[in-house]
Amino acid sequence: MASNFSSTAREISEQFSNVSGYRVRITTASTGKLYAQIVNGAPFDVLLAADVERPQRLETTGAGLPGTRFTYALGALVLWSRQVDDCRAALERADGGRIAIANPGTAPYGAAAKSFLQRSGLWDSLRDRLVVGENISQTLQFAASGNAELGFIARSQLQAPSLPPASCSWQVPETLHARIDQQAILLRRGADAAGAKAFLEFLRGDAGRAIILRHGYGLPEVME
Questions:
Q1: 3-74+180-214 has which fold?
Q2: pLDDT score for 215
Q3: If phi over 0 gives left and psi between -120 and 50 gives alpha, with beta otherwise, what is residue 26?
Q4: Which of 12, 50, 90, 170 could bond to 84 as cystine, CB 3.0-4.6 Å?
Q5: Beta pairing partners, 184
């Protein structure tokens, strides 16, 4: 599953296992890396992506089962720092420090951050200041450790118990970046796996939705 969803998934998996008896094994990475692994035969039953594009591709090619794809969470992008007082103003300072961003090519939150910077006319001027994380978890590490002055992270990561106090935090308006619809899909390998199907039902049910909401995500009005 997408790395931004790892702590949420652990709680969901624990509750699911308690009520169902099924054991869940979790592998986390950027959505793009997980997609590449699936295409190359990785033994996964379910993909919890941080975008729509990769689950759609898997459905189109037959690696994902048609009719099983749905949006399970809506992500939000936050600009975060432990070093400056005004995150938004620091972004445009000529003498500003490094800015952590997840890889836009493989990580949907990185793609959303790039989309915001492009729409704001800042992408070209800030490219030399960017520090690119392999995924959103590494991006948070860059910002939390002080190796980057600012970091574009997922709102859900603000709840991480190990996160140091922020000096500023600014949620990027959803109108200024590509929407972060996080979709799940049952993979071909899990077609006959009762546990995988039950997990997806739990994810989209009331108990799963309550956990997702509590971890800082939005929810679609109807699980699509």
A1: D-Maltodextrin-Binding Protein; domain 2 (3.40.190)
A2: 95
A3: beta
A4: 90
A5: 48, 70
